[in-house]
Amino acid sequence: MLSPARLARRPAGLACLVAAPILLTAATAVDPAVGDVEFGPAIAADPGAARLHTMLLHWSWVLFVPGLLALLAPIRRRGRVLATIAWPAVVLGLTTFAGLTLSDYFGLAVLEVTDVATFERVEEQVGQYGWLAAGWQVPGLLGWALALLLTPLAAARAGHTGWWYPATAVPGFVLYLLFAIEEPPLSLAGPALLTVANVVLAARLWSPASLDGEAAGEGFAAFRRTIGVVCLIGAPLALAAGMATLPGGAFHISADFASDPAAAQASAFFLHLAWLLFIPAVIEVTGRLTGRGWRFAQVAGAVALLGLLHFNGLMVGDYAGLAAEQVLDPARVEAVAARVEGYASLSLGVAMPGMLGALLGLILVPVAAARAGFVRWPVPVLAGVGVVAFFMLTVGRVPGLVAPLLLLAAYGLLARATATPAGARPESAPLPATF
User: Fold this and answer.
1) What is the distance between the alpha carbons of residues 23 and 59, in angstroms, rounded to a whole number?
2) Which of 21, 239, 324, 360 makes the best surface tag, with the fewest CB within 10 Å?
3) Which distant-in-sequence residues (6+ apart) come within 8 Å of 370 by Cβ?
4) Which UniProt keyword terms apply here (predicted)?
């Protein structure tokens, strides 16, 4: 049977599965760049609608992640091949694609400060960045497509949904893929079909008895656990790489990305990768926590997951900022940055929940593990000090490595506990009665 942690997650995941296509429908409906129009002039003519479209679109793809994971979670042996492809496509590819949508905010700021011709020059400059293409665009687009196409097929192959679901959801995605920038109502056909399919499916799967669980060591579950353990180590290592490649020197970080464009591109990729890899890491840890404190663990996992889904995408702004510095004069660069900072939908709808949720979640997840007796209390202490160091010591490449190393120690201990069979793991000290 499903563990209490996974049972608690499933209603939230199914709610996300319903909300995601609804937001996608709304985003498509307000998109000013549909029909036979040029993208730049169209969004410049209605910047308010363009910002609303970007925020709704970003949130839609973000919510699809926990929604699709809820369909993949109960898969055992049947469907495991499709699920093994779909799961990383959802967690890594679709999340990256959601982050790519945020680049529209920066393009809109350039249009509001300059003109269409300058906007096109900045876009051309961004298109030359190999780190962006290889690290974001290719995996993002590929993962987005595989996630939406294969997840319904995997769930049906496993017998957890009828074949009616992929027969409805997959055509819905294909319709969106083909006609998303056409005039309504054609552009709305795909999102509307996805909404109907997901609403019906969620209604059928809402009961805890409607899906069977899987043994922790079987098939697809073993694959997820392996990926989670690898990411518990890989995430802080990627964070270290991101800090080590920031433009500047050992004890001074340069605010001018154009002074070292290669380093700026590499750093943005590794920082994005770090926050991205923390996602499967915290999913696996909180999914393993049962008994005392498991409700707190689910809250901690939700905070971390939602924050990381937003926060990793913000790194795409570094490429836009670099392109602006290379194309625009300093006064316009400052004006573009000020305009981006003034977008309430970006700051309140993405940046604030992303930063607060991600960094707070990286502390709360080890706290939850310690409360459940999964690890000892020095682990969350190390994680907390590491997050504080991330804020306090980002003044150069050398001091910037303190935070990743502390997080590596904390999450490395979580990885050891996760990889150790439950019967062989030593119990932590008894918790105080107040817990």
Assistant:
1) 7
2) 360
3) 376, 377, 379, 380, 428
4) Membrane, Transmembrane, Transmembrane helix
Domain positions in the chain are 1-214, 216-423
Q: Which residue has the tokens 């939602």?
A: 306
Q: Which of the four pLDDT bands, split at 50, 70 and 90, describes residue 435?
A: very low
94, 166, 272, 304 from 308: Cα distances, Å: 13, 29, 10, 6
Q: What is the pLDDT of residue 399?
A: 84
Q: Look-up: residue for tokens 């011709």?
A: 117
Q: What is the pLDDT of residue 218?
A: 60
Q: DSSP for 112-132?
A: HHS-HHHHHHHHHHHTT-HHH
When pLDDT is averaged across residues 248-253 and rounded to a whole number, the result is: 69
Question: What is the distance between the alpha carbons of residues 130 and 161, in angstroms, rounded to a whole number?
Answer: 40
Closest to 119 (Cα-Cα) out of 102, 103, 95, 99 = 103
- The closest of 131, 177, 60, 112 to 316, measured between CA atoms, is 131
Let me know: does 147 contact 68? Beta carbons within 8 Å.
yes
> pTM of this prediction?
0.91
Rank 292-306, 363-377, 383-397 by mean pLDDT and report only the highest.
363-377
Residue type, 286: T
* Residue indicated by tokens 């293409």: 133
Both structure tokens of 105: 């905010």
**Token duo for residue 163:** 């074949």
pLDDT tens for each residue of 207-221: 655 544 444 446 788
Which has more confidence, 318 or 256?
A: 318
Measured distance CA(264)–CA(267) in Å, rounded: 5
Nearest to 115 by CA among 335, 431, 405: 335
Using an 8 Å Cβ cutoff, are 38 and 91 in contact? no
pLDDT tens digit string along 273-304?
999 999 999 999 998 887 777 889 989 999 99
